[in-house]
Structures are given as C-alpha cells and as structure tokens.
Amino acid sequence: MHYIISVFLGYLLGCSNMALYLSKINRVDVRKGGSGNLGASNVTMQLGWGAGVLTAVHDIGKSVLAVVLARLLFPDAVYVGALAGVASVLGHIFPFYLKFKGGKGFASYLGMILALNWKFALVILVLVAVVTIVTDYIVAGTTLTILASPVYLGITGGWLIALILCVATAVILYKHRMNYVRMYKGTEPGLRGAVRGDDRVRK
User: CB 3.0 to 4.6 Å from 95: which of 15, 111, 184, 187, for a disulfide?
Assistant: First the structure.
C-alpha cells in the first residue's frame, strides 16, 4: 500500500505543468510550435529564457517534492522515493487531463535524481552542461543523464533501484526519438540558435 500511495502521489505532482500555465498567461500555445511538447526546452525556444528557466525549476521541483514526501510519509519503505520520482516523471509526460500528452520529462527526471542522490546530480549537471555546450544539442545532455543515472544509482543502491529508474529512462528515450532522427539529419535546433532567438518557432 505504501508503494501504491507513493506512485499515486508522484503521478499527481508530476501532472502539474508550468509550460501549460505560461502558455495560458502568454496566450501562446507552445504545443503548436517548436517540438510541440509542454516542456522547458520548447518553452525556452518560444517564450524566452526567463519562461524556460521558470518551467525547468518547476519541473525539477515537483519531482524533488514527490521523492521527499514519499520518504517522509514512509521512511521504512526502501523504494518509495524512486517509485514516486519515476511516477512524477511519467505524470509530466502523460498528464491525464491533457489526453496524456505532456513534456518529454528530462527536467522532472533530473529533479528525481537530485532528490535521490544530490551529490551525483551535481556532478551529472556539470557533465550535462559541458556536453550540451560542446555538441550544441540539449538532447545530448539529456541522453547522458538518463543513461548514466540508472547505472550509477544501481551500483550504489542496488539493481532494483536501477530497474525502477530504467522505466523512466526508456520512456524518455522513446519521447526523444525524433530528436535523434533530426540530429542525424542535421536539422535539430541547436542551443546557440535558441540563445539568438532564431529557433523559437522552428519545427
């Protein structure tokens, strides 16, 4: 029952979507431009860095909250944190009130890792920044994070933790499949283009 409650709590928190709120406030439906996703990257490209940062902080924070609350409620249940975190990521990607069409889940995934192991999260953040800047692709940093995290946390926390995290990893990899195709074709919008503002409405 502890695990079921943790998953339910994490999913509901994950369904909160700042990208949608900002779309309503700015009267710009970010789902009709860029990648079409309700996530921080797409918001950045269409509404600017301020909105993108706010969205990222919100998406990170809701997964941190999911993990922390689950652990506080059920301190003796070993895997509630990981389950609540993964459920939050899935809630962000598949919100029930938006016909299960949300964001791609990277910021929420990062928030989960931050709550599960903040020291590793800080290290991976530095690596993500370096990889993103070098490659000019946000998705490159995303991929590094979601692949490295289950491996490291599996080594330090046990194979079951890794297995739980792999659920979110597999879903995020699938959600980014078109990014990989565009990278291969050379048509994926780059980070430096987003900074200049010339990729805001690119599809």
Answer: 15
